[in-house]
Amino acid sequence: MDKKDKRYDAYLRILNKELIPAMGCTEPIAIAYCAAVARDTLGTWPDRVEIYVSGNIIKNVKSVIVPNTGNKKGLEAAAAAGIVAGNAARKLEVIAQVSVEQIEQMTRFLDDIPIRVMFADTECPLDIEVILYHGQDSARVHIMQEHTNIVLIEKNGEILVKAEPQNAPGTKGLPEASGQDDYGLLCMEGIFDFAQTVAIEDVQQLLDQQIEYNTAIAREGLARDYGANIGSVLLKAYGSDIRTRAKAAAAAGSDARMDGCELPVVINSGSGNQGMTVSLPVIEYAKETGAGQETLYRALVLSNLAAIHQKFYIGRLSAYCGAVSAGAAAGAGITYLLGGGYSHICHTIVNALAITSGIVCDGAKPSCAAKIAASVDAGILGYEMYRNGQQFYGGDGVLAKGIENTLRNIGRLGKDGMKDTDKEIIRIMSDC
Fold this sequence. Notes:
2 domains, UPF0597 protein KTH89_17135, lyase, L-cysteine desulfhydrase activity, UPF0597, Ser_deHydtase-like_asu
């Protein structure tokens, strides 16, 4: 792809927007960020707190430990962390630096300050509103569509910041019109061309950070007792061949992240689990095959953008498990490392989606690591199928002829078809 092609700069903007560091599960961190901005707007700690959130936020916050809180869980803990110790300027690393004293203050805050959590009356899957009160003063901050996309800041009824949400197919809108146009330029043919031709210096710093951060948390997940220890279980049960190592690395990163590990990850499509899934299996295969650093960079460009392209149709949060898209994208990156061309990569993705596209998202929790392992396995199997002359065809279930048609069908399934499933999952989780 020539640098004069408008897609070149668009794809770079997308990568720089999506591949950012975050600490902890991004939904509780988004609440902490929203609360920290509200505290700064109020100018003091509140004497009461109200939180309005969409169902998808509730299901993704309920069962994960918020890092740097002394192993606390839940929306109240996330908000308290942001209010007591948050540095709003750091966005998704808002509670990256917390002292022991501040953790003690969080505990006292949760004991002393009433925090009321309510369902938001919204159709947006990612919707967070935090209102803080201190005497007669109040501050209100509203986030929609993306984890740091503030659409409203208000103090004592006076609007300080207001941004109208944009509407776009597949995502219920992206915050900037230029960003919306960028995502519309994504297609697998363009992604493959870009991955082969991008100037390495344009992506090296970004990908070096992804490799460093995500490899570190995977090592941590394998070294210590986190969650259900899916990464360690895989290695103990099935040995240390490359296929198992690829699944175990991604699963171990999720083990650690879901259980409150205080290491950052580089996310993809707003998700740390997806960021680890698209990168760690590819990194493991690069080590196994002795691929050069440039080849690894190009494979990571491919896997990252392939995942983002799929999620454009589905949206940030839904009842469709994001690990499925990421696992298929990892399969594409692995296929590239192993010498596969464009057709081979497309068939790998389609085969993988045919296998695992029924996995539902029932919130962030330890079992995410097992879903990641299954999705990476499907990505690898998708490659092995096509390498051995086998494939699934258009008309098989939700698959269509041509990869772009299949991705649109999967997006329709995840965004529209599973709306009622999502509501039922949230109702079930609310009863537990």
